[in-house]
């Protein structure tokens, strides 16, 4: 077992926080050792100092991509925090369908993980607009820093067990069963989601137009307060007036720090 010294842990965690916003507390040392052990062994590193030098000197991006995949927990599931999807369907979509004259609804899933959230939104949107869907541009932008989860998401293939919680009507209209173990989303639904790699710590967000809705759920739990507040300010600036921000139920915004108006648990609005 290759252990990590306090100095090595502080060096690695400072690099991750500075570049990706993820704050690894001191008690996460055991987790870091466990998740990176195989990487060090397979590459013949004797200690975490050698591994750190390898990560910062690698120009291909593969080393840091592997590091992020190992230390981030991309755990999610369909219909997670389902009240958000109900609010999106019952409040957000009716508001914009009645007020967006250009019929260009811009939605961003920031930290989309393996795709369950954006595909769910795509199905809700298709069901809501029905025959009028072709008159609208409603594609969902889904971003993450992990190549691994983005690759999984783009395939649109999930186990039948994972899809058990989806409504029967959705399974009928949007999902093709592959075998007794797996199913996949139809091409029509997959084409409604645009996947891109993006780091939320980038100094400049390269979006040409502002969004009407941003989902960033259970991402900011990995950030310290300053990093979170800075990101929330960017989200505010990136939303159209009246736009909605959805965060995770285990997260909250500092009401003294933000301009967002609280709507309901984990839902805020730019007024």
Describe what this molecule looks like in 3D.
This protein has 271 residues and is α/β, with parallel strands linked by helices. The chain folds into 2 domains: 6-71, Orthogonal Bundle (Chemotaxis Receptor Methyltransferase Cher, domain 1), CATH 1.10.155.10; 82-269, Vaccinia Virus protein VP39 (Rossmann fold, 3-Layer(aba) Sandwich). 42% of the residues lie in helices and 17% in strands. It is built from 10 helices and 10 strands. The strands form 2 sheets. It has a 7-stranded mixed sheet with strand order 6-2-1-7-8-10-9. Strands 3-5-4 form a 3-stranded antiparallel sheet. The chain is globular and about 60 Å long. The mean pLDDT is 94.
Biggest sheet overview: 7 strands, mixed
| Residue share in β-strands | 15-25%
Helix content: 40-55%
Low-confidence stretches: none
CATH topology tier name of the largest domain: Rossmann fold
Could you tell me how far the N terminus lies from the C terminus, measured between alpha carbons in angstroms? 54 Å
Provide the CATH top-level class of the largest domain. Alpha Beta
Return the string of H and E elements. HHHHHEHEHEHEEHEEHEEE
Overall structural domain count: 2
Strands in their spatial order, largest beta sheet: 6-2-1-7-8-10-9
| CATH architecture level-2 label of the largest domain | 3-Layer(aba) Sandwich
| Contiguous helical run count | 10
Oligomer: single chain
Q: Would you report the number of β strands? A: 10
Q: Going by CATH, what is the homologous superfamily of the largest domain?
A: Vaccinia Virus protein VP39
User: What is the global morphology?
Assistant: globular
């Amino acid at each position: 077992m290759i252990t990590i010294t306090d100095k090595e842990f502080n060096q690695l965690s400072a690099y991750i926080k500075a570049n990706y916003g993820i704050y690894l507390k001191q008690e996460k040392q055991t987790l870091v050792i466990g998740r990176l052990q195989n990487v060090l062994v397979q590459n013949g590193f004797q200690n975490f100092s050698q591994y750190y030098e390898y990560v910062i000197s690698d120009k291909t991006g593969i080393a840091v991509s592997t590091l992020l995949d190992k230390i981030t927990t991309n755990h999610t599931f369909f219909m997670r925090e389902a009240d958000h999807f109900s609010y999106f369907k019952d409040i957000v979509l009716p508001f914009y369908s009645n007020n967006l004259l250009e019929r260009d609804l811009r939605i961003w899933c920031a930290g989309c993980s393996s795709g369950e959230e954006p595909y769910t939104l795509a199905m809700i949107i298709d069901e809501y607009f029905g025959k009028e869907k072709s008159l609208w541009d409603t594609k969902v932008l889904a971003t993450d820093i992990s190549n691994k989860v983005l690759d999984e998401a783009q395939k649109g293939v999930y186990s039948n067990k994972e899809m058990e919680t989806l409504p029967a009507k959705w399974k009928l209209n949007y999902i093709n069963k592959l075998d007794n173990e797996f199913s996949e989303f139809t091409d029509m639904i997959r084409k409604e989601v645009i996947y891109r790699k993006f780091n939320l710590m980038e100094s400049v967000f390269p979006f040409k137009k502002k969004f009407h809705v941003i989902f960033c759920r259970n991402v900011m739990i990995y950030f310290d307060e300053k990093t979170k507040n800075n990101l929330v300010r960017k989200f505010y600036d990136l939303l159209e007036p009246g736009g909605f921000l959805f965060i995770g139920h285990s997260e909250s915004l500092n009401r003294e720090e933000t301009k967002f108006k609280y709507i309901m648990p984990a839902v805020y609005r730019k007024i």
